[in-house]
Amino acid sequence: MNKKLTVISTFLIIMLVLTVISHAEDPVFDYADKSNYQDTDFYSNSDPSQWDWKNVDWEKIDYSNSDLYSNDDFYKKLPWDAYVNLDYNEVDYDHKNLDHDAIDSDKYLADKGCVSCQIDFHEKTKSSYSETGITHGNGDSVTIPGVYPTGTKFTVEKDQIRINFPTRSTELEIPEGDDVTLMIAPETYAANADGSFSFDKEPREVIIDQNTISGVIQFKDGQMIIKKDDFSTKINGVQVYSRSSDVNVYFDGEEHLGSYISMDQESGTLLAANAGVLKFQEENPFLTFEENDRLEFDVKNSASIQISQRENDLIPIVKMFGNGDVRNGKSNVYVEESKIKTYGFGSSGSVPFTLQLYDQEENNLLGTDSSPHQIIFDNSDQTYTLPSNSPSEIFECVECTENLATNKVVFDMASTRIRESTKIESIESVDAVSLYIFSQELDQLPTAVKNSVNGVIIVSEKDIGASCGSPNAVGCALGGVITLSADVDPNTLYHEAVHTYVGTFNDESNGQENLMKLGVLGLELKNKYDLQEKYGDEWTTFMFNEEVTELTDEEKEEFAGIRDKIIHGENTFIDEWEEIAGDIYGEGISSTSNVLWDDDSDGPKNGCTRAYGCTKVGEDIATFVEPIADKDYDFFAPLINPDSKQYDPRYEQKINLLWEHGFITTEDHKKIVGAP
Known about the structure:
The chain is built from 19 helices and 32 strands. With 676 residues, it is an alpha+beta fold. Strand 27 and strand 28 form a beta hairpin.
């Protein structure tokens, strides 16, 4: 026989034998025999495609048999209570007969590797399962197990898939396709073994791209969102709460559209627009924050802020555009429709930074176009409004803003500036920056008025009433010395400086004589009523205080009369003014208030700019320059226009007299009445 044929024949014989042996090992089932369906081996070794599904015992099925999950009849006949046994790594989730409502969520999570995880369905939302996760009826989805840690709880609610974390801190990278709401409780109650509860103060948080987040945060189409009215959300030490809209969250420190907050921790930049309230906490990387400090920005509709770090050891700068509130320690700045209000309210503990205010078109709101101003907050609950070109190395350095009021460099600089440009020698101030502001505002006064001042005393706002002898006082002047509060209002400064200038028109010898009389009478009354013991070093102001009951009306009147002679004396200027004014002082003033007319109004009337001006001649003169200090030249327009219902010839006559005697500048005079 041919050797080659012998080899082929031998090979065929071997293959035949192997085939017979193989067939001998495969069990042969009679799929019509009902008894086979009572044998568990039958379900493990038979072919599901040949089963008679009317005879199947679902409790004996081997659900690990992968051939089951490609069989149509398996899904058609699958009873509800059998879903707990499925291998959810093998299930065909797209099969039309798979009942997603019957899927056992705990078994699904376990099979997918999310150990000890849970799913709760609070609402019927037509949610569905897949090989990679869960899809909400609204299209939101979450990857299972994805990046979520052991013990995570998934809750399918009416409008979202919510995720609660079991750990205090974990790093996450949310899958790009996940649309979920993360619930990271900032604080929790922990159950004790005895059934009681204890408060767990350690914050629970997650870290996403090196950003620390607690509270509630939503992911939608890859975008991180803070939901409207979720007040617990905190990102990198900044709590964000919007009452009006959802707020998108970014981590690039760049501008975006709509309502958003954008942070860049590395550069210390934060931008926000229409974002509601931003409440800063100690761990924030944008502003230096100490325990018990209070800082909030209310970024209202169509408003925005920008926080930026600066070099050369300067405090951060904050720019706010549009309407908004700044609440920093006890200081509050409120902006609405380009109007700025400041007030004191809240607990102590301020954060140092420089605030610049703009409208929505980025026009400066503080100062003027030629001289913009900015607000500086120091670390000691003090706030100052200064020209933007003020030396930043003195007013805005980290070290000097620890307490600007005690900044000796500023005090010495301001004192030197005052002495070199005025005749002032006597300088007292509780606040260095207020003295600096005073030195600048003094330069705005007419030369004659400025040169009439020979001393300045700046006291705290709470002490100005006692220093001037009246609880309602905002400033006062006596003997060429003016006393002001630390807020140094230019209006008040001009008002009090006018009082000192009026005094220069008095006869000098007369003035000295009256000063002697005032001193002798004051000493006599002090000893008579033990005023030193009751009022301390402020006893000399008792004559202005209506609450003092020791003095008789005659004694008060005598003292006030001498004082008025010192301030106003008898001079031609006063005579001219009184001749223009007529017999108006004290007429038409409310009996219950010396600052309102008897109809409770306070506008210009009777030739006076306001009711307080008509109390006495000196106040009439001083109140006349107040609108000029505010550069409100239009105030006088209806008062000097013969065609106006408010016209009174005395207004222009008084303005002309003020100009002739140097109380106002030629420039101011021209802007009020035109060229002379």
